[in-house]
Specification:
mainly alpha; two-stranded antiparallel sheet; 2 strands
Length: 308
């Protein structure tokens, strides 16, 4: 019943149980394939969590916000309000907002080293000085990665409408018997994504363990890389989003791979964001943090990690 063609091209007249089953499988595919709305954010928060449990929690917190948004989206789809997606390309604006959120999170972790943002008050903490810090990274306090912000990221990122969202919003949800059933499609899709993101979060969080570093060293490298990835990756998202707003045709440019599975079927702007943020910025900053750590003396390393 759940062959690949049925999952990616659901027919009309499906039973509620079948619709929900397909939504869950689509969510799993969405979570495990390289998607620009999930992987960069989960990667950033997970490496900053530096442990299997922390990485899994990062994936869970992000997916919690994402699942909530998808429930809202499928409800709007049933009511017909989501047709605005067919009239307007919201990818650009969503990229800009997601990028700004990542940028703020990265700045917060670095305590305003690059940009002063009064985010402390929003999180109920004492506000720090408005003076930007210009110290080398190993002399700059790096705050813990705020996982609660991952939930906000998930809700924001969910407004991007890719192939998976199109299927659940415009094909599956309208087949539900009433508006009260509509959120279930988004919830099951989000739950499928959550299962995969939790697993990926655990993998991302343990990347630096292959270097056989201590827990404190992994914590330092992970937090510094997470901060930089959120900061620089957020800037990249916003710039690309602004370019798409200005030149909508950019969002349509892609090289098709012949693979029928969404996120693997073509190489375009989305692929560039995943490769750029996770591959270049993310892994590049993990390596940079590792090299910085190794350049420090033993006493400097102890002083550094004991305060983080």
């Amino acid at each position: 019943m759940f062959d690949l063609n049925t999952i990616l091209n659901p027919p009309a007249g499906l039973a509620v149980s079948v619709i929900l089953g397909i939504a869950f499988i689509l969510g799993m595919l969405h979570g495990i394939t390289p998607d620009e709305h999930t992987w960069p954010i989960t990667f950033s928060y997970s490496i900053g969590s530096y442990s299997t449990r922390g990485g899994m929690k990062s994936g869970f917190m992000f997916s919690l916000g994402f699942m909530s948004q998808r429930a809202v989206l499928t409800t709007l789809g049933f009511l017909g309000l989501a047709t605005l997606y067919q009239a307007y390309n919201l990818d650009g604006p969503v990229y800009v907002v997601v990028g700004l959120a990542m940028f703020v999170a990265g700045s917060y972790i670095l305590k305003g080293r690059y940009l002063h943002v009064p985010i402390d008050r929003l999180l109920g903490r004492e506000h720090h000085s408005t003076q930007a810090e210009r110290l080398p990274l190993h002399e700059t306090e790096i705050k813990p990665v705020p996982l609660k912000m991952a939930t906000a990221h998930g809700f924001i990122a969910g407004w991007g409408l890719g192939a998976y969202a199109t299927i659940i919003t415009f094909i599956l949800t309208p087949q539900m018997p009433s508006v009260f059933y509509a959120p279930l499609v988004g919830l099951l899709f989000g739950f499928g994504t959550m299962c995969m993101q939790i697993a990926l979060g655990a993998v991302f969080a343990n990347i630096m363990r292959v270097k056989k570093l201590t827990v404190d060293q992994i914590k330092y490298v992970g937090r510094s890389a997470a901060a930089r990835t959120l900061y620089l990756g957020g800037a990249a998202f916003s710039v690309i989003g602004a370019l798409i707003v200005a030149f909508p045709l950019l969002d349509q440019l892609a090289i098709h791979t012949g693979n029928p599975i969404p996120n693997l079927d073509s190489l375009g702007v989305a692929s560039i964001l995943v490769i750029g943020v996770v591959g270049l910025i993310g892994f590049g900053n993990l390596y940079r943090g590792y090299r910085e750590l190794k350049r420090l003396t033993f006493s400097e390393q102890r002083s550094l990690t004991s305060n983080k």
